[in-house]
Structures are given as C-alpha cells and as structure tokens.
Design brief:
The chain is an alpha+beta fold and 837 residues long. Helix content is 45%, strand content 13%.
C-alpha cells in the first residue's frame, strides 16, 4: 500500500515522476546506491518544482509499484502473453532498459549528489531505519558503485531479523552467536562477515501470494541444497535472500522477509493440519499445496519440529564461540532433547567453567521447554503477525490498535479457536453460515476464497479473497452501524469471518443506481450509459438462480405475502426497505467522495432478526456488491465488473482482479476516518444556564462533534467575549458558536457582528417572559445573521448540518436520523391502523 493512502497519483503526477526518473543521473544513483532515501527526497523536491506535492516515501512507494507492475508485464511478454499491458509501459521500458534520455543540468546534478552525500554522512535517526534499494537493484549494482557508497564506520547492533525468529527444524539447536564482552554489538567490519546488513522492514502486509507465486516458492524450497541450508542454519536471512533472488529471476518480486513469512506459514498450516487429523477421524480442514509441502517435510518428525515457534537465542549459545580465547575445546550443537555428553578431557579452570555453564544452560532449556510447551502453539499462530506488528510500532503507533487478533494460517478454517460452531445454516457461492451455540441469536459468516459471475456460470478460486471480502464487509457495516443504520453485523471475528445476528433472509436483492450502466442498459434500450438518476433509482430482483434473478415490482413483493420470523412483508415493510436502500447508498456514496471515487450502484439484502422481529440490513457488502469508479472513470473500475468483463480467465487476469479487490479493501478502512475537523463552542451568559447548555453538548456528542462550554456576558464583559472569540478563531479549527442567553440576548448578535464563523441563538426562555425575551434574538440590526432555535437538540443539529458538508461521518449520522425518524412514523401509522381495524 502506497504512502499517502487515499491520495491517488494522477496521470500528470506519474508523468512528472517518470520525467524525473528518466534523467541519467537519477537512474545512475538509483541503480548503484544502497541507501536511497536522499535520492527520493531530491525527487520529491523536483516534483514540487513541477507543481506535484508528494513526500519522499510516496515517491519511493510509487517508484517500486511501477517497477513491480512493469516486471510483471515484461515477464508476461517474455512468456508469450502479449495481451497483458499497463499504463506508461513504454516509458518504463525506456527507463529500465537504459535507452537514451534527457540528462540533468550541471547545477541540478550537483544538488542531487549533494543530497545523497549529506544523507550518507549523517547518522541514522529515523525510526524507520535507513532505506535500502530492493533486491533487483542490489543484484545489478556494479562493484564500483558499491565501493563508492559511503558507509559510516560505527558500531552497529545485530538486527533481530538477522537471527531466525524460529528454530526452523529440531535437527539442530538454535544458536545465537555472541561476541564476548560486546553486549551484542560488533563493529561494521566484523558484522559484514557474519551477515549482510539490510534493514528494510517490509512484510508486504496485505499483498497476498498468488497460486503461481506459492508454487514457485515451493519449487525453490524443494531444492536439496536449499533444504539442507534451512535445516542446518539458525541465521537464515541470507538463505531467504537467495530464495528471493531466485523468485525475482522468475518475475516474482518478493523480499526475503515475505519469503520467510510465507515459508513459516506453510509449515505451520501443514503441521496444524496433521495435528488436527490425528484427533479427527474425518478431518474438516483442507490445505492448498498439501501434497507439495508433504513431499518436502515428510522426512521431518512432526513431534520434534512442531514446536519450532520461538527463537531461543537467549536459551542456547555456541560453546565454540564462548571458548574461542580459552582453548581448542569445541562442542557440537545439541538438539533440545539431547543431554550434554561429558567431555573426556583433562579439565582446567576455564574448561570446568564452560562445562558448568553448558550444564546449567541445558537444564534451563529443559525447564523452559516443559513450562512453556502449552504456549508454543499459540506463538506459532502469532508468527505471521510479528513483522507486521513491528512495522506498525515504528511507523504509526496509533495503528497498533487497528491490528486484528492473530488468526490461524488456514484461511478457510470455519471456526475460530475460541468459538464453538453449530450446524451449517446455509452455504452460498462465496460464504458459509454456521450457528453459534454459545451465542444465542447469532451466526458466524465465513467467507470463501471464491469469485463468481453470472449466477456462478463463471467461477474461480482467488486466494486471499475471503480475507479481502471480510475486511471490506466489516468496515462498511461498522460505518453504517455507527451512523445509526440497523444492521445484523455484531463484530469481526477473524480475518475471514464475522459474527452477525441470526436473520431469516428476505429473498429480494435491492439495487440502488446513481448512474445507468450494466444490466439496466439492456433492460432499458435507448438510455445511454452515464445517465444519472436524481434521486437514485431503486430496483428489486427476486433471488432465483434458475430464472436469472428476475426483476420484481413492489406489488409482486407485497402479493407474495412473505413471512419471516413471524413478520409478514407488506406495504410498510417494502417501503421501509426501499427508503433504507436509498439512505444506505447515499451514505456510502458520500463516504467514497473524499477519496475521489464514484459509487455507481449498490446491491444489498435485508433480513428479519429472529430475536427482535425487525428488518435489518444483512448478508454482506463487499467488492461484489457495488460498482466503484475512481475519478468517475469506468476504465479504472475496481469492482467485480473487472472480473465479469474478462474474455478469458488467466492467472495474470485473475491477479489483476485481485489487485483491484486489494485496492478497495485497503481504502475502505479510510471510510471510518475523516480529515475534517470541527467543534461547537457554547457561550452562556450565566452559569444558571448550564443545564440548558449540557443538553446541547449531549446532542453534539451523538453526531461525534466536540463541544466546549464557556461563560461570558456580552453586556457585562464585551472585551472578554471578544477575547474568547479570538481564541477560537486563532487555532484554525472550524467552529460553530451557540449563544445561550436569557432575557435580553446581546451575546448572539455581538458574536455575529464580530466573527465570520456561524453563530446560532438558543435562548433558554422562561414561561413568564419568554414571549417578550425571544424578540432580542429575532429582531437584529442589519448586517447580522444568527438564526434562532429554541431546542437544544436543534442547535446541535444545525451545527452538524454545517460540518456535514465536509465530514461524511457527521453527514451519515444526519442521514440515518432522517431515515429512523421516517421509519418510526411509518411503524406508528401501521400500529394505529391495525388497532383501528
């Protein structure tokens, strides 16, 4: 995911980046430099001169994404598939194949070089560590370029990632080499003899492995030499660097951490499945690539290797290293379950010390092993999240709370470890529904790694789709629920499942359209694509796969006399679902607008909650449920239509569809946030009006708007009133002032005449003089404009309507309030008519 998520690169911005990238000196420094932060700082500066405001991280992310996409297309072309293409391919081909291009001017050349030199000679203080070029450029670097790179000679600390975070196999003891008396740090010269220093911290989170990528990884893993290296090494970073290089030769751009994480996940999933099969006569779980992994790991005993989930760098040392300066005594590394054999040599003092240390160490290993054996299995499940969590700690501490609880690696396992599943209630094309005996009235919605089109006439497996769809649905339902829409969603349970209220589903698909496209054009010849509906157009389709989901009218739904969970679907229920469909569409449409994305249409379903007997939004809303056009451009569509439009489903085409789905799942989380700020400041003329003001503050909280209360009198202290006004004007936060003053209201008019911010009067009228006092708020001098509302809740809603113009979260709550008010009136009318009858 690129830095600056949600702020897409326009075509002009990409062209500007390519023009800078194509310059000879830029290419040379990117090609021959390990530390490239300074280069991208310079590129960002050059882009600013061209009117493009991007920071160096965004430039680097876009640079890498363009290279990755270029290599994918290039690999396809070399394989004979000339249909695969991308924007700017020829420009990138000219750059990456080093065709003649424009050179930098001498002055610019000097500035760029100075920037790089300054970076290389300054100590690293950035929490994200120093940035190195990706593996493709490292392998292409010339010796001269590498020698020219300035590396400051300083003490460096052994990175955690240079030592395996797991004992890969129990055929040998994990060893953490330690320099005596150096506190785990060694000079640069010696460090280069121990490991290759690469500090990029990138797990590729959210970038799923395709089937072709996994097959390539397994093929390399099956190499006898690679297996021997993995079995006999505890520091395995260089091994995975070699694996990443081999993958790159096959056109697969993965770094060593991604390779190591996938390797561990495959091993864990294989062993977890074997362990489960031992306890279940009829196993329910399946694993992709089981046979391939089994062929590689069948030589490894499951009982000894299954616990290989924790780094033991603190529990074992190399005796040879420890005695390097005391004699020639050396001891082979032991497995965890081996006892230390006595050494039949004449013991001097140093040797006795070493053997005593070795004995204590072995006893400690056995003690810890027995004490923590029950925890190791849980640690295995958390391994795949370690790198991601570490990245988020250094880059965005606030993001730690957003990381979901670790789930088992098997994406299709129907049950979470702490959740007991009942019988399967239903199974659709892309999901399964299970009862939850421990949570009455709830079910588990389990997504599948499957994508379909045309009522499953076209059906393919897309690895990772379950997690993508579950993320999208959970975020969308959370947005709607926080706005006040009644949904079946309860909470996200795992990466691929969420808990929902048990509903009896109404077999009607409700479609809301803003733009005419797709099947609407076929059913309405003469209407041009792009025709916009004001208000949005509502259509209903009866769920009947055999008849291709025929379109129904409201009258057909009413005459069907559906009854679900004891609720008969009549005119009132149809009207409620119709109004709700429009409101839900408008809320999501507004939410996508800040990201410059057009919500074209939306398909949803409703159900009747079996406990409350009320109609709620149910099923799922994922990338199969809508059409989404970035910048309103259909050619950039990111929804399932990109899958429907495929003439032929190839692995490359399916990968393109998957990237679209990932794009949506990454950005859908931004629907829950807003960059817009705002607050309400309530000014009361006297503390006796506090109870009235507290009602305003409480009402503001329902819209998610901060509210502050202040006491000031425009009659008795006008200078203080204006000073308070200036205080809130000075910090730049959009503010709505609410004036609360009884009797003669001078507070509102004084504020309105001295600020450009909105001011609303909300006087606390008394029963005795209220009819006379209100005129001081209504009759104002010319040039003043402060509306008056007597209701505290009305004042808060007035402020919310102002902020809702630029804040989709506030607007969503307003729209939901309108819907819920309308529904309550509709239901009250129905009850009244039933009583009359």
């Amino acid at each position: 995911m690129e830095s600056g998520a949600g702020k897409h690169w326009t075509e002009e911005e990409v062209k500007a980046l390519l023009s800078v990238w194509s310059e000879k000196n830029i290419r040379k420094q990117l090609h021959g430099t390990l530390r490239n932060k300074g280069i991208f700082i310079y590129i960002a500066k050059r882009l600013q001169e061209l009117g493009v405001c991007r920071d160096w991280k965004q430039c680097r992310a876009k640079y890498k994404n363009l290279k990755y996409e270029y290599r994918t297309v290039k690999y396809a072309h070399n394989s004979g598939d000339v249909t695969k293409t991308m924007k700017f391919f020829h420009d990138l081909d000219a750059i990456l194949r080093y065709e003649p291009v424009t050179q930098l001017a001498a002055e610019e050349n000097g500035r760029c070089s100075a920037t790089e030199t300054q970076l290389n000679t300054s100590p690293t203080t950035d929490s994200t560590q120093e940035i190195f070029e990706d593996e493709g450029d490292l392998t292409n670097s010339t010796p001269a370029a590498l020698e020219a790179t300035q590396i400051k000679k300083e003490t460096i600390y052994i990175d955690d990632d240079s030592i395996s975070t797991t004992s890969e196999d129990r055929s040998c003891t994990p060893v953490a080499k330690q320099m005596v008396g150096t506190d785990n740090h060694i000079p640069l010269e010696e460090a280069q003899n121990h490991f290759k220093v690469i500090t990029v911290n990138d797990t590729g989170a959210g970038k799923h492995w395709s089937d072709n990528e996994v097959r390539a990884l397994i093929n390399i893993w099956s190499d006898e030499k690679i297996q021997q290296m993995l079995e006999g090494a505890t520091r395995n970073k260089e091994i995975f660097e070699e694996i990443a290089r081999r993958l790159m030769k096959r056109g697969i751009d993965r770094d060593w951490k991604q390779c190591r994480t996938k390797y561990k996940n495959l091993k864990y999933e294989y062993r977890a499945l074997q362990k489960e099969n031992e306890h279940l006569g009829n196993p329910r779980r399946k694993m992709r690539f089981y046979d391939e992994v089994d062929c590689i790991l069948r030589r490894q005993p499951l009982g000894t290797s299954g616990w290989g989930c924790e780094s033991s760098s603190l529990l074992s040392v190399s005796v040879g290293d420890a005695t390097a300066n005391t004699g020639s005594l050396s001891t082979k590394r032991k497995t965890w379950n081996d006892e230390v054999s006595p050494v039949p040599l004449k013991k001097n003092a140093s040797e006795n010390t070493i053997l005593h240390f070795q004995k204590l160490l072995t006893e400690r290993v056995h003690t810890v092993t027995e004490g923590k054996k029950l925890l190791f299995e849980r640690l295995c499940k958390q391994e795949e999240m370690q790198d991601l969590n570490r990245t988020q700690v250094y880059t965005d501490p606030s993001a730690i709370q957003q990381v979901p609880a670790p789930a088992p690696a098997a994406a299709m396992a129907p049950a979470a470890s702490d959740l007991k599943l009942g019988k399967k209630v239903n199974e659709g094309k892309t999901k399964e529904v299970y009862e939850l005996p421990d949570i009455p009235g709830c079910v588990l919605m389990q997504s599948k790694d499957q994508i379909t089109a045309g009522n499953a006439a076209r059906k393919d497996r897309m690895e990772g789709k379950a997690a993508i769809s579950n993320t999208t649905t959970s975020c969308v339902f959370q947005l709607l629920q926080e706005a006040g829409i009644k949904t079946a969603f309860v909470r996200k349970q795992s990466d691929t499942a969420f808990i929902a209220a048990h509903c009896e589903m109404i077999p009607i698909e409700w479609v809301c359209r803003r733009i005419a496209t797709g099947s609407f054009l076929k059913r309405n010849p003469g209407v041009k694509e792009g025709y916009k509906f004001y208000p949005p157009k509502i259509e209903m389709f009866f769920k009947d796969d055999a008849n291709n989901d025929p379109q129904w009218s409201e009258e057909q739904i009413i005459e069907a006399k559906f009854c679900f969970a004891g609720l008969t679907i009549g005119q009132t229920e149809v009207d409620i679902m119709s109004r709700s469909t429009q409101a839900i569409f408008e809320i999501l449409e507004k939410a996508w607008q800040p990201q410059n994305c057009t919500l074209v249409d939306l398909k949803i379903e409703f159900g009747v909650n079996v406990l409350t007997k009320e109609i709620v939004l149910a099923d799922v809303i994922d990338n199969d449920s809508w059409r989404l056009w970035p910048a309103g451009d259909r050619s950039q569509q990111k929804d399932k239509q990109s899958y429907r439009d495929l003439k032929e489903v190839t692995p490359e085409a399916l990968q393109m569809v998957k990237r679209n789905f990932e794009w949506v799942s990454e950005r859908v989380e931004l629907l829950l946030k807003t960059k817009s700020q705002g607050r309400v400041v309530v000014l009361m003329g006297s503390s006796s009006d506090l109870s009235h003001c507290e009602k305003i503050k409480k009402a503001c909280a329902t819209f998610g708007i901060p509210c502050e209360l202040r006491v000031t009198s425009a009659h008795k202290g006008p200078d203080e009133t204006l000073r308070i006004k200036a205080e809130y004007e000075g910090d730049g936060i959009p503010t709505v002032f609410v004036a609360v003053a009884g009797r003669s209201n001078g507070l509102g008019p004084v504020m309105s005449g001295n600020t450009a911010y909105p001011v609303v009067n909300c006087p606390p009228l008394s029963a005795d003089w209220g009819t006379q006092d209100v005129w001081s708020s209504l009759r104002l001098p010319s040039g003043l404009s402060c509306p008056t509302t007597l209701s505290p809740e009305g004042a808060a809603q007035f402020a919310a309507q102002i902020f809702g113009l630029n804040n989709h979260l506030v607007w969503a709550k307003l729209r939901s309030n309108m819907l819920n008010t309308w529904i309550s009136l509709k239901q009250a009318d129905k009850k009244l008519r039933e009583c009359s009858l």
